Structure formats: structure tokens, C-alpha cells
Predict the structure.
Amino acid sequence: MNIRKMIKSDIPPCAEIMCSVYNNELRQCRWTIGTAEEYLNDFFDMKKFIGFVLLENEQITGGIFAHEKVWWNNSEVFIEEMFIHPDFQRKGYGSLLLDEIEKYVKENKLAGVTLSTNKYAPAPLFYRKNGFTDCEHVIFMAKEI
């Protein structure tokens, strides 16, 4: 398994993987390749984008999309999206992508890493296993219109 910095041409294979991860009975999403590419391109085009892909025999098997976020006391990295192809999940590869983000944070002397995730999916357990904690002072809110 290999990790490298993401390039624009990595978006289509990442979109395919994202669809394979989220379009299932558990998550009940209905991503198309087109909307997934548009969604991921929005992150890639951010001014302070940080992204890495996971490769197995030069084939992309996962990705992490993040950006550096300015904050009043010290900037941090916010993880927007992370996914591993279903055939490669539960093998420690997601942790490798998080390690790459943590390395970036340390090299750039940033405050840390933040993210939001669905509390009803398996992801919170994965992030807790990787040292993340629930932030009692933060609430994620939405308004459907």
C-alpha cells in the first residue's frame, strides 16, 4: 500500500470509490458518478486543499479530502471526506490516511484535526479508535428547506 498527494486526475476514480462506499443499504445514498465528481472537485478546488490517495499496485483504493482552516488561535485541518474501497476496508488503510493528515499538521505546526461524521454509521467508532474524541461543546445543526 502506498500513499501520495492527490492530483486533479485522481477525482474520477475517487468518485467511483465514493459511490461504492455510500450507495448501499446502510448509508442509503444515491450518488451518481457525475455528482460525486462535482462534490469532490469542490473540495479539490479549495484554496488550502489537502488531499491524499491510497494506492494498491498503482490503483487508487481510497482518498482523503481536507483543507487547512484558519482559526483564531491556530489553524487546523478539517477533514471533509474520507473513504476506502469496500474491498480494502478494515485493514488499517483508513488509519494510514489519517496518519498522513497528522503528519501534515505536525510539519506545519497546526492545532489539530477536526471533522464531522454520521453518528449512526460505523465511522465514529473508527475515528475514536484513531484518537478522536467527541466534542461536547460543538453541535452540528441543519435546516431543511
The chain is about 30% helix and 25% strand. The beta strands are 2-5, 49-56, 59-69, 76-84, 113-115. The longest strand covers residues 59-69.
